[in-house]
């Protein structure tokens, strides 16, 4: 009887995860090979734009877990540090249509652009490519009897979501992200936050708007 109940519980858990952040699980395609697993760093040698002075940069130092618990909301901490998943259609950016870029909520490193965002119908913000592949780390995820590809940020080692092979052209990929792992920077604020180099991503969209 006990063995039968445990089997039913495992089946229910697997079914729940199948509905989270996507449909059919997939591994990364040949056009987007999985990155080598990266060890968690407590301090990064990369630089992050300093919000108060766009022309200056500062070395990002990874906060301690206690500091992160103070800086992040409970949901942000659960998603980024404990591989949690936020509810679909009830998160901040799933239907955000504004021009801008999405940065890591912890490190501030640029990850995705609204120019690569599309309606996936899943209830989570979805992108067909990142704006900086060097900041994206992919790891095989075999939790609950499935094989998926987890997406993490390199600098802060934040859990971001998963990537699937059912996305649109030209990549055929769907980066299914958690809003809680991201911070949106509107196009008009990029220069102020030291991210002016990404304004070129919106040159075509700006032209269309003016027309």
Key features of this structure:
disordered N terminus; three-stranded antiparallel β-sheet; alpha+beta; disordered C terminus; six-stranded antiparallel β-sheet; 211 residues; 4 helices
* Tally of DSSP β-strands: 11
Number of helices: 4
Beta-strand fraction estimate = 25-35%
Shape by Cα distribution:
globular
**Helicity range of the residues?**
10-25%
Give the H and E element order.
HEEHHEEEEEEEEEH
Radius of gyration: 18 Å
Low-pLDDT residue intervals, each spanning 5 or more residues: 1-20, 23-57, 207-211
Report the span from N to C terminus: 69 Å
Q: How do the strands line up in the largest sheet?
A: 5-6-10-9-8-7
Q: How does this structure look, described?
A:
- Residues 1-20, 23-57 and 207-211 have low confidence and may be disordered.
- The chain has helices at 2-18, 65-71, 74-82, 203-210, and strands at 43-50, 53-61, 100-104, 110-113, 117-118, 126-127, 136-141, 148-153, 159-164, 174-177, 182-186.
- The longest helix has 17 residues, at 2-18.
- The radius of gyration is 18 Å and the shape is globular.
- It has a six-stranded antiparallel beta sheet with strand order 5-6-10-9-8-7. Strands 4-3-11 form a three-stranded antiparallel beta sheet, with no helix packed on it. Strands 1-2 form a two-stranded antiparallel sheet.
- It has 211 residues and is an alpha+beta fold.
- It is built from four helices and eleven strands.
């Amino acid at each position: 009887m006990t063995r039968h109940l445990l089997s039913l519980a495992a089946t229910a858990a697997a079914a729940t995860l199948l509905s989270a952040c996507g449909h059919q699980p997939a591994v990364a395609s040949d056009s987007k090979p999985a990155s080598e697993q990266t060890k968690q760093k407590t301090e990064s040698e990369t630089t992050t734009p300093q919000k108060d002075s766009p022309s200056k940069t500062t070395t990002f130092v990874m906060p301690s877990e206690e500091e992160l618990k103070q800086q992040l909301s409970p949901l942000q901490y659960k998603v980024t540090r404990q591989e949690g998943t936020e509810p679909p259609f009830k998160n901040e950016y799933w239907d955000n249509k504004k021009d801008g870029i999405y940065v890591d909520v912890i490190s501030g490193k640029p990850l995705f652009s609204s120019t690569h965002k599309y309606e996936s119908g899943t209830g989570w913000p979805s992108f067909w490519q990142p704006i900086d592949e060097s900041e994206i780390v992919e790891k095989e995820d075999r939790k609950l009897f499935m094989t998926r590809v987890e997406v993490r940020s390199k600098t802060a080692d934040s859990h971001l979501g998963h990537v699937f092979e059912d996305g649109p052209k030209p990549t055929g990929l769907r980066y299914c992200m958690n809003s809680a792992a991201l911070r949106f920077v509107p196009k008009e604020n990029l220069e102020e936050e030291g991210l002016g180099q990404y304004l070129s991503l919106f040159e075509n969209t700006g032209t269309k708007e003016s027309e």
